[in-house]
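B., you asked whether I could sanity-check this one before it goes into the benchmark set. Here's the sequence:
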Amino acid sequence: MACNTGPVCRMCRREGVKLFLKGTRCDTDKCAIERRQTPPGMHNYRRGKLTDYGVHLREKQKVKRYYGVLEAQFRRYFQTAERTKGNTGKMLMALLERRLDNIVHRLGWGLSRSQARQIVRHGHILVNGRRVDVPSYLVRTGDVITVKNRPKSIEIVQAAIAEYGREVPDFLNRVDGPQPEGQVLRLPEAEDVSIPVEVNLIVEILSR
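And here's what the prediction gave me:
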């Protein structure tokens, strides 16, 4: 499976916003974007003003990097959102929020989405009592997500919970205990996204 193996802090600097790709490190003074506000590359070179296309592209790239999806998969989400009744941009963001790796991260079981993706792929997560190892699995209202009843699985998740410093969103319910559990109370909406996004710019560039 294709994935980005380069330095992730460069992505935050390139987009000019924290994408929280390194978990709790992003909340400390070690965060690269806090130390260097300039984009990566040759900083002495005078960059010109972004074109209209460039503005649209940067918004799309920011969301792709935030959720850790590649171009082809991102376009499939957009096509699904187009076929769904309602605002296409809001439907797109809602679909991305429903990804299982994102839900695991928002529950605090993974310090970053990349760690949450690895937790899912390694079979540590159950959905409604069944093992699901597909990070792109879309959760539904009422789904019960639990950690596999195995010492290693529980140890990994409990370590993340102890370090996770953000609140669990209100569309999820987390129950801590010997075997951590979470439930999807309702489907996430565009307003539940924890990063500022101009979805209309994304819709415009993907509609071309």
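One thing to flag: The chain has two domains: 9-96+193-206, 99-184. Otherwise nothing jumped out at me.
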